[in-house]
Amino acid sequence: MCFHVNGTNMRRKPMVLTLVKLHMNTKFEYLYRDAANYKQFGEVIIPGILKMKELRPFLRDQLLFIPSKVGLPDLQPKEWSIDDHIWHEVENLTETMEQPSIGTTARRLLECFRVANENQWYEFAEKQETILL
Predict the structure, then answer these.
(1) What is d(CA 53, CA 42) in angstroms, rounded to the nearest whole number?
(2) Which has the closest alpha carbon to 23: 107, 100, 79, 88?
(3) Strand 88-96 versus strand 25-33 pairing type
(4) Which residues are CB-neighbours of 88 under 8 A, at least 6 positions away?
(5) What is the pTM of this model?
(6) Which of 6, 21, 55, 122 has the fewest CB atoms within 10 Å, measured from its CB?
(7) pLDDT one-digit tens code per residue, 69-104
(8) Alpha-carbon torsion 86, 91, 94, 96, what sign?
(9) Which helix (H) or strand (E) holds 106?
């Protein structure tokens, strides 16, 4: 596109806008649901961006995980009943500008999920520990 200013031909340079996501973090929302459908909700803000499509392959049945095996707080009650178990559900991952509430980065957390999944979430060890209590 050309403009004429005072009889001269000037070429207009295209304006390039670069959107930069500075300090974007991820709100990781999850829940614990016991066999009686009692629910306890939790969330952490993780430094960096984590997408569900990255996380899903490392979840049991593409939904479940054990928070304590990846460095997150478990939400089930301290005193277990017959309705309690070890599994939690990922509810939502959203980008946020909120300050992180944990030091573990999105990349590191994803790696923890990968390792836990490779080890079947240490489920057998968890069940043994529960039985011994």
Answers:
(1) 21
(2) 100
(3) antiparallel
(4) 30, 31, 32, 64, 65, 66, 67, 74, 75, 76
(5) 0.76
(6) 6
(7) 999 999 999 999 999 999 999 999 999 999 999 999
(8) negative
(9) helix 106-118
